[in-house]
């Protein structure tokens, strides 16, 4: 009971210190609000609202059908421009795509000839250019097929039918929003817990704790609980308000199961943050350690590139990252509706890594306290 009272008292101290720091409160609000929304929208790989212009030198029913085949949300309504302004418009970046339909296009197709359609692409927008070109080719080909030979049948010996599971429309921001939530959760948790340790050392309050009847375990656990509780509240609001209500990402699994897994991951990330805060002697060193650890965790967790696409020697190392396991079970719960029977191995791996980080941080923290006491 005495240990519990000490932990509760230390948690109260952590809450008060956090509430007095307006900058950290603003960072938490941004991370689980606009930060998730912006990151969820920015990782979309689809063509979205691309600007298209047409140079129609044919003026036929086919050319009009091709122009009318492009519409939102993939493309803006095409703008008709003369050929003399095409180069200037491309240099000014007014359009991502400029389609040139040559004179006699429909007549040549009906006569069995194979005319060429020119598509000028602003490849500085790399993602839109590569994917959008394929979209344009398919759309214009289908439009020509419908006008010139609407009754023609496909003689291909194989008919491929693609059925998308869990995300029938292929909305990439569904996955991007969960990835953004993981990134913000990881970054904020490690920063808060690590900064709490650095703040104790820089403000001289670590010496005050040494003369109190508290143990290193109680100090470390209080920082995990206090900072984890604040971050968990931000996570819940970000999940329910931003992801589900604003981004309209459907939740197919159970909220309680996702929140339980998040609590386990917060324990692991907080333990890692405490370890970094103990290793770093100053806030500047802590900031440099964050740059060396957080970005690799985000990259190697499987969000930016699949684990299978990473080098063979690197894939086993990713098992040591709690963020990889969190992303696996979070996407499984949210998108596939996975139950506890499916995700429990990831839960166990996350908790095991968190316990290992916490034990290592506790050993280092005791050494740090002993060195301060001797000095």
Summarize the model shown.
The chain has 375 residues and is mainly alpha-helical. The protein is built from 14 helices and four strands. The two termini are 32 Å apart.
Primary descriptors:
2 domains; mainly alpha; four-stranded mixed β-sheet; abc type-2 transporter like fold; 375 residues; 14 helices
Can you offer a commentary on this structure?
The chain has 375 residues and is mainly α. The protein folds into 2 domains: 2-43 and 171-374, no CATH class; 52-148, abc type-2 transporter like fold, CATH 3.40.1710. It has 14 helices and 4 strands. It has helices spanning 2-19, 22-31, 34-42, 61-68, 86-91, 105-110, 126-148, 172-203, 205-210, 216-246, 255-279, 283-300, 322-336, 340-374; strands at residues 52-56, 79-80, 97-101, 118-121. Strands 2-1-3-4 form a 4-stranded mixed sheet, covered by helices on one side. Strand 1, helix 4 (61-68) and strand 2 form a beta-alpha-beta unit. Helix 8 runs antiparallel to helix 12. The radius of gyration is 28 Å and the shape is elongated. The protein starts with a helix and ends with a helix. The mean pLDDT is 84.
């Amino acid at each position: 009971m005495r240990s519990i009272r000490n932990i509760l008292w230390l948690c109260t101290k952590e809450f008060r210190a956090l509430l007095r720091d307006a900058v950290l409160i603003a960072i938490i609000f941004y991370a689980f609000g606009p930060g998730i929304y912006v990151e969820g929208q920015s990782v979309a790989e689809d063509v979205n609202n691309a600007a298209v212009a047409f140079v129609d030198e044919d003026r036929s029913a086919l050319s009009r059908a091709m122009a009318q085949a492009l519409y939102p949300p993939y493309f803006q309504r095409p703008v008709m421009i003369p050929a003399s302004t095409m180069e200037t418009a491309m240099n000014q970046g007014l359009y991502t795509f400029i389609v040139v339909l040559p004179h006699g296009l429909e007549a040549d197709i009906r006569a069995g000839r194979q005319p060429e359609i020119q598509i000028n692409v602003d490849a500085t927008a790399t993602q839109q250019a590569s994917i959008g070109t394929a979209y344009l080719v398919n759309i214009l080909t289908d439009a020509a097929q419908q006008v010139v030979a609407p009754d023609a049948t496909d003689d291909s010996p194989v008919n491929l039918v693609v059925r998308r599971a869990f995300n029938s429309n292929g909305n990439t921001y569904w996955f991007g929003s969960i990835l953004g939530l993981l990134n913000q959760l990881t970054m904020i948790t490690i920063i808060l817990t690590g900064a709490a340790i650095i703040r104790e050392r820089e403000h001289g309050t670590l010496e005050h704790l040494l003369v109190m009847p508290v143990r290193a375990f109680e100090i470390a656990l209080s920082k995990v609980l206090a900072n984890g509780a604040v971050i968990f509240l931000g996570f819940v609001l970000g999940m329910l308000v931003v992801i589900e209500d604003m981004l309209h990402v459907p939740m197919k699994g159970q909220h309680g199961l996702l929140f339980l897994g998040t609590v386990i991951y917060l324990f692991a990330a907080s333990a890692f943050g405490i370890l970094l805060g103990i290793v770093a002697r100053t806030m500047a060193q802590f900031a440099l350690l964050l740059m060396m650890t957080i970005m690799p965790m985000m990259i190697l967790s499987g969000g930016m590139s699949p684990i299978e696409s990473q080098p063979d020697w690197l894939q086993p190392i990713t098992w040591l990252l709690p963020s990889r396991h969190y992303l696996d079970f979070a996407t499984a719960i949210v998108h596939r509706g996975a139950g506890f029977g499916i995700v429990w191995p990831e839960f166990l791996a996350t908790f095991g890594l968190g316990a290992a980080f916490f034990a290592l941080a506790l050993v280092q923290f005791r050494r740090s306290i002993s060195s301060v006491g001797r000095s």
